[in-house]
């Protein structure tokens, strides 16, 4: 799960990481009012769950409240990488002397959290990694101890290159790690962490991603979820107990089991097609799940054919077949549906599916995938 910058900054503030004060608004007139309260130049910042807002024109400085109104009206409603801007953060503008990058992520290969820093902040870390990899400092963390004070100071010194500034910066690095650890984040990033011309150290941007599997432990964080900004299909799928990830192809896939779903997508690619989604209907196959899966896939207008690939174990093929019969009866399905069912109660399933002559049956996975690709063309 991702949260907006203003939400991440609320958590930063709770952990003692200094952030400039700010207000979130949804209209240009409220932006003007918020800027008037600040009484200084402000930055108007699009609140979207995608990065690179600055480059997209979603971060603008405004010297007066009237200018804040104008900038907010430009940014609100803007499309940034497919997401419509519905909220802007009005935050005190600061004079930047130096932009720094610092983040905590999980290094899966090292099986440890990793603190990364670069003295070239404000630039995407992927760009630094490519163009100036030696600028990136890395400190691996033993989760039993957290970030040792000496390690935080050494990193801070390398980033700030100033003994006086290294102290508050080391403090921020330790607090960022504590936050990352306590909220079960998968990423905690400050880009840029700035030194202002009056020598304050502040987090100007804040990015937090949470480990979805740990959210159960954090109902307060789950409440920060912005359903408006998330993919509608993915939200519905989560509510129906399905795992769904939208992709960019045209072959809709309904599969039981994550492994088989991956293998199915691989095979679609292998035969020259493009999967429109990953969808695992899970172990049980209540007919309602099949209907829900189909209606989620059908919301995507680029889908041109639907492929059911079911390996019946705990999932019973006849249940899936009943789900398909119900779906065809309830929904006005115009797209071709290819069905390959094998395993538990396969014979019964075939018998049931005879009621739906519109279905394209397939015996093997290869045959089903090839048919679905041909029908999507
Ligand atoms: P991002 O593009 O989505 O990462 O958004 P950021 O919050 O990082 O803002 C992008 C850039 O805008 C920063 O790297 C800064 O250079 C600039 N910026 C943001 N806030 C301020 C500010 O208060 N003062 C000044 N001068 N620049 C700012
Ligand atoms: Mn940033």
- Which range does the strand content fall in? 25-35%
Name the quaternary structure.
single chain
CATH superfamily annotation of the largest domain: Succinyl-CoA synthetase domains
Structural class, please?
A: alpha+beta
Q: Please report the distance between the alpha carbons of the first and last residues.
A: 35 Å
Which molecules are bound in this entry? guanosine-5'-diphosphate, manganese (II) ion
Quickly count the helices: 13
Furnish the topology, listing elements before pairings.
Blueprint: H1 5-14, E1 22-25, H2 28-38, E2 42-46, E3 59-62, H3 65-75, E4 79-80, E5 83-84, E6 88-92, E7 96-107, E8 112-118, H4 125-131, E9 136-140, H5 149-160, H6 163-182, E10 185-196, E11 201-203, E12 207-210, H7 219-222, H8 232-240, E13 243-246, E14 251-255, H9 258-270, E15 277-280, H10 287-298, E16 305-312, H11 317-330, E17 337-343, H12 346-353, E18 360-361, H13 365-376
Parallel strand pairs: 14-16, 16-17, 17-18
Antiparallel strand pairs: 1-6, 2-3, 2-6, 4-5, 7-8, 7-10, 8-9, 10-11, 10-12, 13-15
Helix pairs in contact: 2-3, 5-6, 8-10, 10-11, 11-12
The structure holds guanosine-5'-diphosphate and manganese (II) ion.
Guanosine-5'-diphosphate binds next to strand 2, strand 7 and strand 10.
């Amino acid at each position: 799960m991702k949260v907006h910058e203003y939400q991440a900054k609320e958590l930063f503030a709770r952990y003692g990481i200094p952030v400039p004060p700010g207000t979130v608004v949804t209209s240009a007139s409220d932006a003007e009012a918020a800027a008037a309260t600040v009484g200084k130049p402000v930055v108007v910042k699009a609140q979207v769950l995608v990065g690179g807002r600055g480059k997209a024109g979603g971060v603008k400085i405004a010297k007066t409240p009237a200018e804040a109104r104008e900038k907010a009206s430009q940014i609100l409603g803007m499309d940034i990488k497919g997401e419509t801007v519905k909220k802007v953060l009005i935050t005190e503008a600061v004079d930047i002397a130096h932009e720094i990058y610092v983040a905590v992520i999980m290094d899966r290969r090292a099986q440890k959290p990793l603190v990364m820093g670069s003295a070239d902040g404000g630039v995407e870390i992927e760009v630094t990694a490519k163009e100036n990899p030696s600028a990136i400092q890395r400190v691996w963390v033993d989760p039993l101890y957290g970030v040792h004070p000496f390690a935080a100071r050494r990193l801070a010194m390398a980033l700030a290159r100033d003994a006086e500034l290294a102290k508050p910066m080391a403090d921020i690095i330790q607090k960022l790690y504590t936050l990352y650890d306590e909220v079960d984040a998968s990423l905690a990033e400050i880009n840029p962490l700035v030194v202002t011309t009056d020598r304050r150290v502040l987090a100007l941007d804040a990015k937090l991603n949470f480990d979805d599997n740990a959210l159960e432990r954090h109902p307060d964080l789950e409440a920060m979820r912005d359903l408006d900004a998330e993919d509608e299909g993915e939200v519905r799928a989560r509510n129906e107990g399905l795992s769904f990830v939208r992709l960019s192809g045209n072959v809709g896939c309904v599969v039981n089991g994550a492994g088989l779903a991956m293998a199915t997508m691989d095979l679609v690619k292998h035969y020259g097609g493009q999967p429109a989604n990953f969808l695992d209907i899970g172990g049980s196959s209540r007919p309602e799940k099949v209907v829900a899966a189909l209606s989620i896939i059908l919301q995507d207008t680029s889908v041109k054919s639907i492929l059911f690939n079911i390996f019946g174990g705990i999932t019973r093929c006849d249940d899936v077949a009943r789900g398909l019969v119900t779906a065809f009866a309830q929904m006005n399905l115009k797209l071709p549906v290819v069905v390959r069912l094998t395993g538990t109660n396969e014979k019964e399933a075939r018998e049931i599916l005879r009621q739906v002559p519109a279905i394209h049956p397939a015996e093997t996975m290869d045959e089903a995938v090839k048919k679905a690709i041909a029908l999507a063309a």
